[in-house]
Automatic annotation (TrEMBL):
<dbReference type="InterPro" id="IPR039565">
    <property type="entry name" value="BamD-like"/>
</dbReference>
<protein>
    <recommendedName>
        <fullName>Outer membrane protein assembly factor BamD</fullName>
    </recommendedName>
</protein>
<comment type="function">
    <text>Part of the outer membrane protein assembly complex, which is involved in assembly and insertion of beta-barrel proteins into the outer membrane.</text>
</comment>
<feature type="domain" description="Outer membrane lipoprotein BamD-like">
    <location>
        <begin position="47"/>
        <end position="242"/>
    </location>
</feature>
<comment type="subunit">
    <text>Part of the Bam complex.</text>
</comment>
<comment type="similarity">
    <text>Belongs to the BamD family.</text>
</comment>
<keyword id="KW-0449">Lipoprotein</keyword>
<keyword id="KW-0998">Cell outer membrane</keyword>
<dbReference type="Pfam" id="PF13525">
    <property type="entry name" value="YfiO"/>
</dbReference>
<keyword id="KW-0732">Signal</keyword>
<keyword id="KW-0472">Membrane</keyword>
<keyword id="KW-0564">Palmitate</keyword>
<dbReference type="InterPro" id="IPR017689">
    <property type="entry name" value="BamD"/>
</dbReference>
<dbReference type="InterPro" id="IPR011990">
    <property type="entry name" value="TPR-like_helical_dom_sf"/>
</dbReference>
């Protein structure tokens, strides 16, 4: 979703700042004869007023000239260092880069903003830009998920550090989406190993889904695949346990029907081991046990 930013209370500066270049040669004695004197004409170089630079940057944004906007805000930051204009300019630099889809530049500017202004009222927004800049770069499930990992970390940091901010709710929703993405990648790899009959490697991937991503839509399939892999590996008690945990937590799941059918075809029933890793993993989320149902 697109992000928005509000500009609060912008007022024009009373007068332009003027930089006056110094005169004379440092360290030289006064020359009363004027023989060695060099004449210097004072040069007055006016800065562009801060509010004008800011307005020009906003105008560039409205025209979707994000590169031009970045230049204006960068100039404002440099000319009015250590002022509130500099702070605003840096945040707008991050925002302009984000809108221009230069996400890495947006991340760098946002991180610099948080480094300079960690207690600012807009710190949560800077963190949101970091999270969204990574989120926008999440690739499809077949590719490396480094961006997904970074997005998850940044989103979680936003919720932890700024739980009451206006961006927290959106961050929580995107955390779930990102976790689902990461779980999907683990499932893809697990299925590959299962197809290649590398059952230990497949089990490791499916266990990761169960341990890290129980609340995603992939948890049900992960438990069913564990039932398959454990059975194929010749460990029926673990297969029974995986099927039982699946049944207790997702009794109406078609994946449970498949797991139950696999065991039944071999004369077995699901049976949960309450001290097992799988049982504990789901108990930590739901607080339920088999005997409690």
């Amino acid at each position: 979703m697109p992000v928005t930013i509000r500009h609060r209370g912008l007022t024009a500066l009373a007068a332009p700042l003027v930089a006056v270049l110094g005169l004379g040669l440092g360290g030289c004695d006064f020359d009363p004869t004027g023989i060695f004197a060099e004449k210097y004409k004072p040069e007055v170089v006016p800065d562009v007023p801060a509010d004008k630079l800011y307005s020009e940057g906003l105008a560039k944004m409205e025209d979707s000239d994000y590169e031009g906007a970045v230049k204006k805000f960068d100039s404002l930051d440099k000319q009015y260092q250590y002022s509130d204009w500099s702070r605003k300019a840096l945040l707008m630099t991050a925002y302009a880069n984000y809108e221009g889809q230069k996400y890495d530049d947006a991340i760098n500017a946002s991180k610099l903003y948080l480094q300079r202004h960690p207690s600012s009222k807009d710190a949560a927004y800077a963190q949101y830009l970091i999270a969204m800049s990574n989120y926008k770069q999440i690739p499809d499930i077949t590719r490396d998920q480094d961006r997904s990992e970074k997005a998850l970390v940044a989103l979680q940091e936003l919720v932890q550090r700024y739980p009451t901010s206006e961006y927290a709710a959106d961050a929580k929703a995107k955390i779930q989406i990102t976790r689902d993405q990461l779980a999907g990648k683990e499932m893809e790899i697990g299925r590959y190993y299962l197809e290649k009959r590398n059952f230990p490697a497949a089990i490791n991937r499916f266990r990761d889904v169960v341990s890290k991503y129980q609340t995603t839509r992939h948890a049900e399939e992960a438990l069913e695949r564990l039932t398959e892999a454990y059975w194929a590996l010749g460990i029926p008690q673990e297969a029974q346990n995986a099927a039982a945990v699946l049944g207790h937590n997702f009794p109406d799941s078609p994946w449970y029907k498949d797991a139950h059918a696999l065991l039944a075809s071999n004369g077995l029933e699901p049976r949960e081991e309450k001290t097992s890793f799988l049982s504990k993993a789901f108990r930590s989320i739901t607080g339920r046990t088999a005997s409690a149902e």
